[in-house]
Amino acid sequence: PEKFFGHTEKINYCSISPSSTQIVSSSDDGTVRVWDSITGNQMFKCAGHTQPVECCNFNYQGNLIISSSQGCSVRVWDSSNGNQLYHPRISQEISDTSDGLIEEYPEKIFNCHISNDGEKAISIHGNPKIRIWDLKRNSLLQTIDLNCLIFNCIFSFDSEKIILSSQENPLSIYDIQNTSRIIQKESLSYNDHQIQS
Predict the structure, then answer these.
(1) 151, 163 contact by CB (below 8 A)
(2) CA pseudo-torsion sign 129, 117, 90, 178
(3) What is the pLDDT of residues 62-82, one digit of tens each?
(4) Residue 112, beta-bridge partner list
(5) Closest Cα to residue 196, out of 159, 175, 178, 170?
(6) CB contact at 8 A, 185 and 170
């Protein structure tokens, strides 16, 4: 197997691009790195997080990468060069930091995904809640407050709904426009085990 060298701390997550030509990884060293999946060579490093980076994922087209850190930061990168494109924030009242990036928001983030159309993102928080972001406006679109542990959450193919699995309900679907729960299937557990991804 090919070995990839570059991170200086533990690797927390990795994902392969839809084209299978790139691999993205996130690490406790605070970086997101993109690799050539054939040669194992590092293509570039995405630097900006100030805390260990927990999660990283490509969007459906493979042109965007989203990452989230223990520093409660969500960032979106150009997968061709590692340039930061978006750093969404909760409120327009939050001021920029001295380095020109948006101030972190005070909630730990466990996972994150980009919609297939590349215009929205979701982040899973430990509160527990899910935030839906408008990437074009770099701002918060919706918040869904829950009262149980969230295992995972993804966008539907048309980018109009989100599907989540949680400790309370094996599978729930929300409409992004009004975050109303439109499907809740208790029967979608498998042999009485919880669905976690």
Answers:
(1) no
(2) negative
(3) 999 999 887 678 899 999 999
(4) 123
(5) 170
(6) yes
Pairing of the two strands 120-125 and 42-47: unpaired
- Tokens 């159309």 locate to 117
Q: Do residues 184 and 169 lie in contact, with contact meaning Cβ atoms separated by under 8 Å?
A: yes
Q: Which amino acid is at 123?
A: S
Residue with tokens 């060579």: 41
Determine contact, residues 32/45, Cβ cutoff 8 Å.
yes
Asked whether 32 and 65 are in contact (CB, 8 A), the reply is: yes
DSSP type of residue 102: B
* 107-154 per-position pLDDT tens digit: 677 789 999 888 999 988 877 788 888 888 888 888 888 777 787 888
How many residues can be counted in the chain?
197
Q: Which helix (H) or strand (E) holds 130?
A: strand 129-134
